[in-house]
Amino acid sequence: MGQKAEVIARLFYPRAVAVIGVTASPERVGYNLLESIVSAGFKGRIYPVHPRLETLAGLPVYRSLEEVPGPVDLAVVGVNQLAALEVVEECGRKGVKGVVLVAGGFKETGPQGEALEKRLVEVARRYGMEVVGPNTLGLLNTHAGLNATFYPLGELPRGSASFITQSGGVGLAILQKARDEGLGIGKWVGVGNRSTLEPADYLEYLAQDESTSVIGLFLEGTEDAGRLARVAGKVARQKPVVVYKVGRSGRADFAALTHTGSMAGSYRMYRQIFGEQFGLLMVENTLAMVAACKALALAPRPAGNGVGVVTHTAGPSIVFLDEVAMGGGVFPAFAPETMEKIKGILGENPPVVLKNPLDAAGQGMQAATFGRLLEAVAQDPGVNLLAAIFCQHRHWRCPTPEILAVRERYGKPVVALYIAALDEVRPERDILQGRGVPVYLTPEEASWGATALIHYALRRGEGE
Amino acid sequence: MVAGEIVAAARREGRRILCEDEAKEVLRRAGVPVVPCRLAASEDEAVALAEEMGYPVVLKVRSPLIVHKTEAGGVALDLRGEAEVRRAYRGILSRAAALDPRALVSVQPMAPPGREVIVGVTGDPHFGPVIMAGLGGVLAEILEDVSFRLLPVAREEAVRMLRSLRGYRLLAGYRGVPPADIEALADLLVKVSGLMEAHPEIGELDLNPVLVYERGLVVADARLVLAG
């Protein structure tokens, strides 16, 4: 592990956390930093620091960091930008490994803030400390019961999807959507102003973090993009990386003398370099980010890009096919043996067209028939990934046990699309997802999940 | 003179922009085919060079102060005889006088038309040096059909880069138009990549246009800016 990665590991798994700038007022950041840490169930030591308070959240408060009795790995700092430098200096003297600095008012505000941030970095370097932020929401690690953000979120579902985000707000949107999708979170970090730690540094750490199986990266832009692309390309050899880069409409401002420079477009450059050159999966919104990470976290990689679809309703399978085909999936014609099996199930002349996607109409609404069709398609040699598309109905049950049986018997990944209100299918979804079948409620999300699996089955690029 | 010496000479003169003849010399040394570009110290010398090269020829202004030659009225194409060369020579220098009284004129053979491609390297504020390839002329400007890669690029990546252009078929052949020499173009990208690796002091490079033929290609104009 590199030196930075070792420190980052310590920040995600601190033995002791000091919270500096705590207050007794729930509307203040300092209060929420402490509540987040306490309410997430952190098992290490927690040291609130405040010059006058005696106790907070049932914990003794220390007058200064110096008075804290034991070593501190992580200091979560809620003071403003003007007080921050002195606090970081104290952290350095105490031997703290790293600081989460939530305050804004640094580089993002102009030359004065930039000068302040430069001094901050100097202090951190002097003591060999790393800074998460400034101007960040903080970081989370469900595997350590650690929520070092000022958003008390309670206990999050634990899992293996980890996120690096250049925006706290978008990061929260991903986190909350993941929660709704039943996708367990591993680690999460808002990189803020990237003062001493770049997204590439966190990525290098997560690459070798055993509890992370897929990494989502939300980017606004970084001067470290070249290294980030190389690192991400390399990391994706071990575990999938999903990249969401914002800025489709933007035009980067290049002060270039040449024609080449004047035509450069930043979003396009990110897309081409991350996506085409380094073979990373690029997504275009938060929903696609979560859908892709869910499939990659839950389902095995298909052996190829052949997709077989079973449904009782054509439209969603067409939407699904359209999206998946754009992402490199193919929908091969079924083999003659498969056709024989399907005819054996539906009859010689059923009132449907027998092709892939297989729309069995009325007969497909019966879970048992649906299951037999899915089983027939699963045995087709051209099919590497199955999509089961079913509209939830009050009187016809979902083919959940049938899907599970096929998934387990044939070993091929299955993506399920249950068109329903979440409340109606939540128990079925949780059963399926608990056994490696991602479930989606819309055809687009199902297609983004399937595309992610296919992408990392086919991956081409320099990091290959 | 090797590439490093040309660059060092420009630096000594406090210049960041290399003139076309210098940029082309750097490229030629890197094994890139270029349209020869020779300096004429006088009108008579321009005529002599044109006669030696054979008509038609092109005359261009040569000044480190004039980056956009066409806009400055500093390019005369397809000159077919002595009289045209003399007229163009005087015209170019008189238009350049206000911008750079010490401007010179270069003489080059008129390259036969081919499929126009742009190849360049730019220092991107986020990625650092990136290489760009795109279809040239009007297509590049209107459709912005260009493809970027982080340097260095190996041959396989260079080919992928060209294939990812929307207008790739204009190179690969269509409706009976034979394919352009895509292999030669991929070679060019790899050579430019190698040149950048060998000379990190190069900040930006612009080969525009590159004329790609059914067999081979040639760089018709080139600009090189040293890293700041």
Q: How do you describe this structure in short?
A:
The complex is a heterodimer of chains A (464) and B (228). Chain A is an alpha/beta fold.
Just give the CATH class of the largest domain in chain A. Alpha Beta
In terms of structural class, how would the helical and strand content of chain B be classed? Answer: alpha+beta
Total strands of chain B: 11
Estimated radius of gyration of chain A: 25 Å
Percentage of helical residues of chain B?
25-40%
Estimated helix fraction of chain A: 40-55%
CATH superfamily of the largest domain in chain B, by name, is ATP-grasp fold, B domain
Give the topology string of chain B: H per helix, E per strand. Answer: HEHEHEEHEEEHEHHHEEE
Model regions low in confidence, pLDDT < 50 over at least 5 residues of chain B: none
The description of the largest β-sheet of chain B is: 7 strands, antiparallel
Could you explain the architecture of this structure?
The complex is a heterodimer of chains A (464) and B (228). With 464 residues, chain A is α/β, with parallel strands linked by helices. The longest helix of chain A has 16 residues, at 111-126. Chain A is built from 17 helices and 19 strands. Chain A has three domains: 1-135, Rossmann fold (3-Layer(aba) Sandwich); 156-298, Rossmann fold; 300-458, Rossmann fold (3-Layer(aba) Sandwich). In chain A, strands 9-8-11-10-12-13-14 form a seven-stranded mixed β-sheet, sandwiched between helices. Chain A has helices at 3-12, 29-39, 81-94, 111-126, 168-180, 199-207, 225-235, 259-262, 266-277, 286-298, 314-326, 336-346, 361-364, 367-378, 400-410, 422-434, 443-458, and strands at residues 16-20, 45-49, 55-56, 59-60, 74-77, 98-101, 130-132, 138-141, 146-149, 158-165, 185-190, 214-219, 241-245, 281-283, 307-311, 358-359, 385-391, 414-419, 439-440. Chain B is α+β, with helices and mostly antiparallel strands and 228 residues long. Chain B has helices at residues 3-12, 20-29, 43-53, 82-96, 137-143, 155-163, 168-172, 182-198; strands at residues 17-18, 38-40, 57-62, 75-79, 104-109, 115-124, 128-135, 146-150, 202-212, 217-219, 222-226. Chain B folds into two domains: 36-110, Dna Ligase, domain 1, CATH 3.30.1490.20; 115-226, D-amino Acid Aminotransferase, Chain A, domain 1, CATH 3.30.470. At the A-B interface, helix 7, helix 8 and helix 9 of A face strand 6, strand 7, strand 8, helix 6 and strand 9 of B.
